Amino acid sequence: MVHAVSLENGSGQAECNNGTAPMDTETDMPNLSTLPPPDMNWAITLKDKVVAITGANRGIGLGIAEVCLANNAKAVYSLDLMEPSEEFAALSKKNAGRFKYLQMDVTKEESVKQAVDQIVEAEGAIHGMVANAGMTRHQPALDFSMEQVEQLFRLNVFGAWACATAAARKFISLGVKGSIVFTSSMTSYRPNRAAPSAPYGGTKAAVRNMAHTLAMEWAPHGIRVNSISPGFVKTAMTYYVESSPDWPTKMKYYGGMPRLALPQELGGAYVYLLSDTASYTTGIDIPIAGIVGAW
């Protein structure tokens, strides 16, 4: 049962209409400082936002960056260990001065901290962190060496942790109500029958779970933490999926959308979670898998 609350009873104390004891307004009232301003612009936009995306030199990260830029982000930074791709160069040229690259190793905490510091030094602030960098390896579980398993966890989980905590510390020091978005995966929910990888699914389940707890811990600072779980997306890592001889047959019977997603098709969800419009959205995962039946 939900009980309405009367904030004041005339004596300066708050009371509930269910007859429970009054609440001390000075010590027990919730902190309302995280509320949006009364003149809030409710358009879904990244205007004036500075966003960092790990692993955005190609693939899903690059697609997210393109959609962020299309939604008026002030600046988008790709934080990547590898050199930028031709596609990165083309998008950067199209968005002169707004799409930038910083070399960073997500598995090294100091490298992450330095990159965040560089962004703030150049732009004056940072408002969003997309912990997207990751890798996969598809093979039977008994074929994995412990070194391979550790490599997946080091990049996908520890790297995401380093990015989230570095961003949160910077948000708090700047007084920014920032947003952190993890890229998880539908394999965090169920096995990928088309290309199994038990360790990869484990890393993505860890990331999705981590988002929930960090959202709870950092909510008092106005920091929101969410995740997105894509299904099959058309990237260099999934080229083999469509080339499989039985792919058309699988698509015929699985139901859902019989194709892979373009990376840009994920971008709308990231833009929403990074925007101020999502000011009350935290601790959730958004699955984006038009062929979810294939999993």
From TrEMBL:
PANTHER family: BENZIL REDUCTASE, CHAIN DEHYDROGENASE, PUTATIVE (AFU_ORTHOLOGUE AFUA_4G08710)-RELATED. Residues 1-27 are annotated as: Disordered. This is Uncharacterized protein. Residues 8-20 have a biased composition (Polar residues). Belongs to the short-chain dehydrogenases/reductases (SDR) family. Pfam families: adh_short_C2. InterPro entries: NAD(P)-bd_dom_sf, SDR_fam. GO terms for molecular function: oxidoreductase activity, acting on NAD(P)H, oxygen as acceptor; oxidoreductase activity, acting on the CH-OH group of donors, NAD or NADP as acceptor. Keywords: NADP, Oxidoreductase.
